[in-house]
Design a protein that fits this description.
With 131 residues, the chain is an alpha+beta fold. Among the domains are: 36 residues; 48 residues, SH3 type barrels, CATH 2.30.30.100. A 5-stranded antiparallel β-sheet has the order 4-3-2-1-5, with helices on one face. The longest helix is centred in the first third of the chain and has 34 residues. The N and C termini lie far apart (123 Å). 5% of the residues are buried.
């Protein structure tokens, strides 16, 4: 057998080796696979990272949090990259800020006491007495 015809014999059945194959269907397929990966994997992961970063920036003293290891506590103090958690009345732990998994309850800022207006019920009493 002639060795020059060997590549022709190795071609796929039904394929014309003399005709140039188009690369467009292959590129379209790879493009569709990339779009599917982007919307199903990459985009949700980026959104979750952004939410976690915002949550870690918003931490403040008094927030009740859960660490990655499952330790529940409230924030006693915050430094740039460290958080001191108050676990018990006498137990405090220092951990990395990135070790906070979620905020269970945010501390509420102290509100100034607003004067309570007393309702004027004197008119209602007089109407009840008249009947």
């Amino acid at each position: 057998m002639n060795q020059l015809n060997l590549p022709l014999l190795m071609a796929a059945p039904g394929a014309d080796p003399a005709a140039g194959g188009s690369i467009v269907p292959t590129l379209v397929t790879f493009g569709l696979v990339f779009v599917i990966f982007y919307f199903l994997i990459i985009r949700p992961q980026n959104r979750k990272q952004k939410e976690t970063k915002e949550m870690l920036k918003a931490l403040k003293k008094g927030d009740k949090v859960v660490s990655i290891g499952g330790i529940h506590g409230s924030i006693a103090s915050i430094k740039e990259n460290e958080v001191v958690l108050k676990i018990d009345s006498s137990t405090k732990m220092t951990m990395s800020r990135s070790a906070i998994s979620s905020v269970v309850e945010q501390s509420r800022p102290a509100k100034k006491a607003e004067p309570v207006e007393e309702a004027d019920d004197s008119e209602d009493d007089t109407e009840a007495d008249d009947e």
